[in-house]
Structure formats: structure tokens, C-alpha cells
Amino acid sequence: MRRRVAEFRRPIRRRLSYGICFLLGAFSVVGLVLFFVQHNYHQDRVHQHPLLLERNTNVEHFSKNRVNLTEEILTATSLSRQLSEEMVLAKAYVVIAKQHNNFHLAWELSSKIRSSQLLLSKAAMNGKPVTKEEAEPIIKSLSSLIFKAQDIHYDIATTIVTMKLHIQALEERATSATVQSNVFAQISAEALPKSLHCLHLKLTGDWLKKPSLQKLADEARNSLRLTDQHLYHFCIFSDNVLATSVVVNSTVLNAEYPMQFVFHIVTDGVNYGTMQAWFLSNDFKGATIEVQNVEEFHWLNESYSPVVKQLLNSESRAFYFGAYPDVNAEPKLRNSKFLSLLNHLRFYIPEIYPQLEKIVFLDDDVVVQKDLTPLFSLELNGNVIGAVETCLEAFHRYYKYLNFSSSIISSKFDPQACAWALGMNVFDLVKWKKENVTAIYHYWQEQNANGSLWKLGTLPAALLSFYGLAEPLDRRWHVLGLGYDLNIDNRLIESAAVIHFNGNMKPWLRLSISRYRPLWHKYINQSHTYLQECAIG
Ligand SMILES: *[C@@H]1O[C@H](CO)[C@@H](O)[C@H](O)[C@H]1NC(C)=O
Ligand SMILES: *[C@@H]1O[C@H](CO)[C@@H](O)[C@H](O)[C@H]1NC(C)=O
Ligand SMILES: *[C@@H]1O[C@H](CO)[C@@H](O)[C@H](O)[C@H]1NC(C)=O
Ligand SMILES: *[C@@H]1O[C@H](CO)[C@@H](O)[C@H](O)[C@H]1NC(C)=O
Ligand SMILES: *[C@@H]1O[C@H](CO)[C@@H](O)[C@H](O)[C@H]1NC(C)=O
Ligand SMILES: *[C@@H]1O[C@H](CO)[C@@H](O)[C@H](O)[C@H]1NC(C)=O
Ligand SMILES: *[C@@H]1O[C@H](CO)[C@@H](O)[C@H](O)[C@H]1NC(C)=O
Fold first, then answer.
1. What whole-number distance in Å separates Cα of residue 234 and Cα of residue 251?
2. From 88, 93, 349, 355, which residue has the greatest number of CB atoms within 10 Å?
3. In the predicted model, what is the mean pLDDT of the chain?
4. H, E, C per residue of 43-99
5. What is the mean pLDDT of residues 192-218?
6. Cα first-last separation, the chain
7. Three-state DSSP class for residue 500
8. Between residues 64 and 170, which one has the greater pLDDT?
9. Distance CA 117, CA 32 (A)
10. Residue with the larger pLDDT of the pair 411 and 9
């Protein structure tokens, strides 16, 4: 696996031409995302941007006896592909030409782009491939225009920089548009849906009423398997029983030897009984499952952890300034203080599991699709964390997450350093302790007490704490974006060991992205009485 990773990454870095191709690709992808976002998600496939045909394997929407355009576009002689590719280039040059006030060239290019779009969408609607007679004149004139553009704007370095800036601008517009149109998702993400609340009540009832469950839990607590180094250990920190169940179920169902897996779940006090009741009364292929309550981690207190201190402070501030929720309101399922604390537990893994040497961390919004056993034998090359890098597709570099105007950041970090993702990570806990990562984390968390280094989330803190200690993994280990990105390639999703619904459109919400929802829902027991009674599924 290591070797393959290296081969996968290096040529891209070395070769300029690859870089350009990639930029063009990214340009078109971002353009498409934007296109979709701005068209309000109307997924009318017939009127889709013709370029999409290249990426979208969903051509089954065209009736059966038509030409399979996916196949057509993959053939060596495909005219549609040739057209699409030229259009991408031409579009990039429209932007550049306009910037250099070559309005006539920009106009010529745009008009040819329009003709190719027309040709491609006609072909898509009729289910017939583009013919040579139709395509040739357009391809020829586009080629000569592109040639002319290249000749005028010969400075390829400028071209790259210009295009990069445009990609970033487009990307940002896309992001903000998505966030804005997801205001509802954000609101409903904060309040747990009714059906989950119903499940929670039923399971809590079981936990309180059935002493047999408590006895089972006591026995499980003392299992020697929890600290057995020969087994494969996973940790999940969550307050959502259904999401956690999907993570565990998908992991064991795709594993060859699920009996060798141990899951360490940490939740808050409100959900402790719920989690216990669920995991003790359902079948997870013989895997060992431990449930702990974060409120019983007495070592994780104000005097040890700056995070706990900050959380307590912000809570008391909110109280004194009247932002505290009404005391008479119904008791909240999600205690925001412990919710944030659960999010930060990923920085205390060696403290929570002092006897373990290696562990895989899974977010509660992932689905596992492959056997994860090989992750444990990946060579981390002396690093503490294994993670997929995110700077290739989306230019997620350090400067995107951190305030580089601050000298303590700019003096220690490279703004262009490649960022990576949390959510599916493998940790070498021996190395973690040796490198004092938790102490480094505490240092940065204290520096950021006033929010001047970064604002939100745990990723910036992780990027600082694990700087120079992260081993890049093959991207297929962890495919991200299923909670916000409407256009992830189906082949990429299929090849992924872990898919991650990061973003607001979580699969358990009504506002989730319909195309990805079944990937999550198939790991739920649809015939479970409680789930039926609570109308989940
Ligand atoms: C079209 O071809 C692709 C790739 O060969 C295949 O996956 C898809 O099922 C085909 N679709 C139809 C409708 O035949
Ligand atoms: C706080 O945590 C530290 C170790 O992390 C421990 O020694 C101390 O006793 C704890 N204090 C309380 C009040 O629990
Ligand atoms: C970690 O902390 C210990 C004690 O504070 C110190 O002795 C050691 O040198 C530190 N290790 C690193 C790699 O900084
Ligand atoms: C934030 O706190 C740091 C020290 O912890 C200080 O140096 C910095 O000036 C503060 N920034 C702001 C904007 O208050
Ligand atoms: C970034 O850091 C600088 C210098 O410490 C500070 O003045 C500025 O307010 C910070 N920016 C934000 C958005 O906090
Ligand atoms: C796990 O997923 C399978 C289907 O993929 C389903 O049949 C089963 O009921 C699920 N188990 C639980 C405990 O949800
Ligand atoms: C689904 O849940 C029901 C209990 O409601 C149980 O009898 C059945 O075995 C479960 N199915 C699977 C595949 O876990």
C-alpha cells in the first residue's frame, strides 16, 4: 500500500504538465459544483451541463436502447470527450483573455463553447453519439482559437497562477452558496430529529428497567479483550446511537474476522444508557464493544485541560449574559458542553486507552465499506497519525485554516503545507506519548483562548499539534464530502474504504443528499421494532 501511495503522489508533484491538467480538471469540477449549487439542486439530468457526462455514470437515465454515452466517452476516438476537453481549456482561456482585455478573443471562444455545448446536449437528449460531420468543424475552430490564445498568453506560469486564483474564488463562492442554502440543514442538525429522540427514550427505558442489561454491561467492562494488543481497536466518540451503530455495523460486516475487532465508544451521560442498551441487545458479529461515559473521566478536568476550562468559561459567560437556555425548556438531549468535549476527545486517546499501542479513530458520520484490518499494518514511518491529504483536490493548505498574520503561526508553519483530514485516522499511541502531542495540543489551545489563531472546529488544532507527524494515506482509505458535495464520482465512492458524510447534510437528516443516503441506510436494521415504531428508515 505504501509503495502505491508513493507512486500515486510523486509524478503529480514533479511534472508541470500534470499540474496543468489537474488544474483544468479541478476548474471544471468546481465549475460544475457551482453550476449545481446555483441551479438550486434541480437535478434534471437531461438538461445537465454536458460536461457532466464525462464524470457521471448515471447515464442509465436515458432509455435502454440508446447509445451508452458513458461507454462512448471512454472510447479512444470519442468526439464528445474531445469536445468536452477542448471546452474546459477554452473556458480557462476566456477568463484569461478577458483579464488581458482581449475581448474579441474571449467572445470568439465563448461562441464556440456555446456551439459545442449545444451539440453535446443534443446528443445527450437523443441518446446518439456526436457524429464526425457535426463535431469536426467545431473541434477545428476551437483548436485554432485555443492555439491563438496560447500564443498570446504564452506565459504559462502566469496562466497557472491566474487559474488557481479563479479556482479558489469559484470554490469559495460554491462553499458559501452551499452554506447559505443549507441554513435549514444547520438548524435541524442542531436539534436531534424526533425519530432519534423516540429511539433514545425507548432504549433508556430498557436500560433502566432491565437489570439483566446492567449485569451484562458490568461483565463487558472487565473483559480482557479491551486491552488485548493482538486485537484490532477502534474508537468512536458520539452522542448519536444510530450513527454509531452504522459505523460499527458497517465495519464488522465488511471485515473478514469481525471477532478480532474491539470498539471503544465514549458518549455523554444522557446517552450512556441508550448506547449500552443498543449495543448489548443487537448483533455485531461477535465484535467486542465497550461503552464509556465522558462525564466519568475525572482526570479530564479544568486543571488538566485548557479545553475543559474554556468550555466551562464559555458556558458560564453564556449564563451571565443571559444566553443560557430557558431552565423550563424541555431537557436537552444534546448537552452542548459535553458535545464539544466529545469532539475534543480525539486529542486524549492515549490518556483514555493507556494500555493500547495502535488504534483507528472513526467519526460517527462515516460508513465503512472495506475490511479495515490492513490499516493496522500500514507503515507510519515514525509518524503519529495516518490521514488522507486534502490539498490536491481542493487546495486545502495550512493557510486556509490558520491565521498566518499571527507571528507564532507564521514563524513555525509553512502556509503551503498540505492539510489532511480527520474522521478516519490511524494512531501510533506509543509515538504519540513520546512526542508529547497532547501537551503540544494544550499549548496551542491556550494560545487560541481568544480565538485569534483559528475560529472553529478541531481540525486547525490537529493540524498544529500533529505538524510534521502525519503520514499521508492513499486517498481511497477515506473519501470525504458526502455531507455537502453533490458531485462526487461514483467510482471514487465505490473504491473507498471509508466514506465520510462531513458537512451539514447528514444521512440521518431529511435534508441529506438523496444519492448518498442508501449507502448509510443499508446498515440499519429496517425490521427492528423500535426503529419501525419510531419511523426510522
Ligand atoms: C454504460 O456503460 C457503463 C460502463 O461500461 C456501465 O457501467 C453502465 O451500466 C452502462 N449503462 C447502460 C445503461 O448500459
Ligand atoms: C484533575 O485531573 C488530574 C489529572 O489529570 C488529577 O490529578 C486531579 O485529581 C483531578 N482533579 C479533580 C478535582 O478531580
Ligand atoms: C516530552 O515531555 C517530557 C517531559 O515533559 C520531556 O522529557 C521530553 O523531552 C518531551 N519529548 C519531546 C519529544 O519533546
Ligand atoms: C490573544 O492572546 C494572545 C496571548 O494568549 C495575545 O498575544 C494576542 O494579542 C491576543 N489577540 C487578541 C486579538 O486579543
Ligand atoms: C490574526 O492575528 C493577528 C495578529 O495576532 C490579529 O491582529 C488578528 O486579529 C487575527 N485575525 C483574526 C481574524 O483573529
Ligand atoms: C447491519 O446491517 C445489515 C445490512 O447491511 C442489517 O441487516 C442488520 O440488521 C444491521 N444490524 C444492526 C444491528 O443494525
Ligand atoms: C433486526 O431486529 C430484530 C428485532 O427487532 C431482530 O429480531 C433481527 O434479528 C434483526 N436483524 C438483523 C439482521 O440484525
1. 10
2. 93
3. 79
4. CCHHHCCCCHHHHCCCHHHCCCCCCCHHHHHHCCCCHHHHHHHHHHHHHHHHHHHHH
5. 89
6. 37
7. strand
8. 170
9. 14
10. 411
CB atoms inside a 10 Å sphere around CB 287:
23
Question: Ligand 5 within 6 A of 455 CB?
Answer: no
**Each residue's pLDDT tens digit, 345-379:** 999 999 999 999 999 999 999 999 999 999 999 99
> Where in the chain are the domains?
2-181, 186-377+474-533
Q: Which of 38-52, 141-155, 254-268, 330-344 has the highest mean pLDDT?
A: 254-268
Confirm or reject: Cβ of 450 under 6 Å from ligand 4.
yes
Give pTM, 2 decimals. Answer: 0.68
- Cβ of residue 58 lying under 6 Å from some atom of ligand 1: no
Determine which of 39-48, 159-168, 362-371, 417-426 has the lowest per-residue pLDDT on average.
Answer: 39-48
pLDDT computed for residue 457 by the predictor: 80
Least confident piece of the model among 26-30, 58-62, 433-437: 58-62
CA dist 361 and 427 (Å) reads: 8
Residue 311 to residue 337: CA distance in whole angstroms: 6
Q: What is the CA(352)–ligand 2 centre distance, in A? A: 14
What number of H helices and E strands is found in the chain? 24, 9
Strand, coil or helix: 107: helix
| Stretch (H or E) spanning 429 | helix 429-434
- CATH architecture of the domain formed by 186-377+474-533: Alpha-Beta Complex (3.90)
Residue 444's CB is within 10 A of a number of other CB atoms, namely 21
Grid cell for residue 278: 443498543
pLDDT above 60 (res 495): yes
Ligand 1 neighbour 71 (Cβ under 6 A): yes
How far apart are the C-alpha atoms of 8 and 10, rounded to whole Å?
Answer: 6
Residue 2 CA to ligand 3 center (angstroms) comes to 30
In whole angstroms, give the CA distance from residue 534 to residue 200: 10
Mean pLDDT of 130-145: 84
Q: Whose CA is closest to 94, among 120, 114, 122?
A: 114
Give the pocket of ligand 7 (CB within 6 Å).
283, 525, 527-529
Q: For residue 236, what are the β-bridge partners?
A: 265
In short, whether 406's Cβ falls inside 6 Å of ligand 5 is yes
Residue of the CA atom closest to atom 14 of ligand 4:
450
Region 150-155: mean pLDDT is 70
